[in-house]
Amino acid sequence: MARKLTDFDVLTFDCYGTLIDWETGFWDALQPLLMANRADTITRETALTAIAKIESKHQANTPGMRYDHILERVHRDVAEHFGLSSTAELDAEFGASLPHWPAFPDTADTLRRLKQRFKLVILSNVHRDGFAASNRKLGVEFDAIYTAESIGSYKPDPRNFEYMLKHLKQDFGTAPERILHVAQSLFHDHVQARKSGLANAWIDRQNLRDGGSWGATAIVEERPEFDFHFPTLAAFADSI
């Protein structure tokens, strides 16, 4: 039976890519390296594609490392990938860039609308301090925040969803069938959300369903199923 958005009590969100514009954040933070090397031929698209592959590798290989330190390694390896010269200072600046990444224009207003009807929860691949800085741009107080730093692994590791489901049941008494996972990334979120038995809403900000670019998200060869599809978070809220 097809489900309705009003069937759910809790919305669980990915943050970066769904609420925060991480691709613009990545690209802006990469500019000092490109300028220092006069790397005029590297485009946003080629840079984001490289970041997607390198970041997912580090997250899988070092699941207990804080995200800002992951980003330092990503910057170092991106420089090496393109044959550029980096420094420890530039790597550290990139690692500390997350608080400067912008929210999507529709995020804060839409979250305030959704907060009137649902519990709002974050499941994010970052460290606690990093999310706290981004949260100042999001306009709401979340009912629960689960980060990779707290869990000890990065999505799409199944442990992240197991941790979230355990704590939502323990802290709020919420059964999985009352939860809707809302996210942009097929790789980080939707594949594992479906395996975890969650209903899911795809916020397709990259317009992938109609042939858009994967950008900073690792490519998924077999697209997972999804219960709902919207181009933006505002369109998601408008449909309720």
Provide a compact summary of the structure.
This protein is an alpha/beta fold and 240 residues long. It has helices at residues 22-37, 44-61, 67-81, 88-95, 107-115, 128-135, 148-151, 158-172, 186-195, 233-238; strands at residues 10-13, 119-124, 144-147, 179-183, 199-203, 228-230.
Keywords:
240 residues; 6 strands; Rossmann fold; alpha/beta
Structure description:
The chain is an alpha/beta fold and 240 residues long. The protein folds into two domains: 153 residues, Rossmann fold, CATH 3.40.50.1000; 79 residues, DNA polymerase, domain 1. It has ten helices and six strands, in the order βαααααβαβααβαββα. α2 packs across α3. The longest helix has 18 residues. The chain is globular. The two termini are 18 Å apart. The model has no long low-confidence stretch (mean pLDDT 96).
Task: Label the overall shape.
Answer: globular
Identify low-pLDDT runs.
Answer: none
CATH homologous superfamily identity of the largest domain: HAD superfamily/HAD-like
Order of helices and strands: EHHHHHEHEHHEHEEH
What integer is the average pLDDT? 96
| Count of all domains | 2
The beta-strand count equals 6
CATH architecture of the largest domain: 3-Layer(aba) Sandwich
Q: Which CATH class of the largest domain is shown?
A: Alpha Beta
Strand order of the largest sheet: 3-2-1-4-5-6
Number of helices: 10
Broad structural category: alpha/beta
Strand content: 5-15%
Radius of gyration: 18 Å
Q: What name is given to the CATH topology of the largest domain?
A: Rossmann fold
Q: Main sheet, how many strands, which sense, barrel?
A: 6 strands, parallel
Give helix % range: 40-55%
